[in-house]
Design goal:
The complex is a heterodimer of chains A (203) and B (104). Helices cover 55% and strands 12% of the residues of chain A. By secondary structure, chain A is of the alpha/beta class. By secondary structure, chain B is mainly α.
Chain lengths: 203, 104
């Protein structure tokens, strides 16, 4: 999806920033750090670069070199987003965010949208974060994701191609895998399906 | 793939940095060069970096899987600004492992 946005028309006019939330990095993934990572990706040229460079020099000159606080970060980020004609912010796995950070993150992103007409936000996450999103972004568009038969088949074909243990495979088994697994899988998660695939291959 | 970023690896950030080019888009290549030239400033902005993770996702994903999303009206409207400021947020909701990260 991110690559598709990048490859789209007029890519020079479009700025894209992404972030992958990860429960293993919850402590480091504070709202300030996440916003900073987004800003880092928007620092491409012109005004945005100049503004951030100025702020950095100023902070460096202060005694001890001051670390960034969320309000400072938000001010810079809002300014950057307002300067850019089109900005896509993509955040993956919102549910992996520390709960306290999640609420702060959503509220901060809401403020960014309020200051810009060209900003777009894309989230992915488990259904349980939907309520918090809808609370802050009342007209957000929700797309439920479930594995599509076509996707599963394609995924399986690729994995079978890469199978290192090719002696264990036969045309019949391959045909059975490609026929039976996509039928049974709808609604099941991919991780479970991988277990099912290994099971099918081993037995 | 533009290899600029491989020639100028960036050593900022946490453990998920792999110093790879993100995409072939102009902006990201420029962004990598700016990151190379201002490592201290980038670290000041945030110790985190998503480029390594994005590279892994791009490498692992299977071409064509998840393309259906790009054809939906919801995605097209969101992308094109068609819905105006109201429809600025798109949320893809799904259970663990359904492939949200790898959507194309």
């Amino acid at each position: 999806m991110i690559d598709d946005l990048c490859d789209g028309p007029c890519s020079e006019e479009i700025a894209i920033a992404m972030f992958y939330c990860d429960f293993r990095d919850q402590r480091e993934q504070t709202t300030t750090n996440i916003m900073g990572t987004i800003l880092k990706q928007l620092v491409v040229r012109g005004q945005v670069l100049e503004d951030v460079q100025k702020a950095f020099q100023k902070a460096k000159n202060e005694v001890g070199g001051r670390g960034l606080r969320l309000p400072d970060m938000m001010q810079m980020l809002r300014q950057a987003v307002a300067t850019l004609p089109r900005v896509f912010i993509c955040i993956d796995a919102l549910d992996e965010c520390f709960p306290k950070h999640l609420l702060e993150l959503l509220t901060s992103l809401k403020h960014i949208l309020q200051g810009s007409r060209g900003a777009r936000i894309f989230f992915t996450g488990r259904p349980q974060v939907q309520a918090e999103i809808e609370k802050r972004f009342t007209s957000s568009v929700i797309v439920p994701i479930s594995p599509k038969t076509h996707d599963i088949k394609r995924f399986l074909e690729k994995k079978l191609e890469m199978d290192t243990d090719s002696d264990a495979m036969s045309d019949t088994l391959r045909a059975d895998i490609l026929r039976i697994i996509p039928q049974r899988i709808s609604g099941m998660c991919v991780a479970e399906s991988l277990v099912l695939i290994s099971f099918t291959i081993l037995h | 793939m533009d290899n600029t970023a491989y020639r100028h690896p960036i050593s900022i950030g946490d453990g998920n940095v792999y110093c790879n080019n993100v995409t072939n888009s102009h902006n990201n290549t420029v962004n990598n060069i700016i990151a190379d030239e201002n490592p201290e400033m980038m670290k000041w902005l945030s110790p985190l970096d998503t480029r390594g993770r994005h590279h892994d996702v791009r490498t692992d994903r299977v071409d064509g899987v998840g393309n259906w999303l790009l054809e939906t009206n919801e995605f097209r409207e969101w992308r094109s600004n068609g819905g105006g400021a109201d429809k600025a947020v798109l949320f893809c909701s799904g259970n663990p492992g359904v492939g949200k990260t790898y959507l194309r």
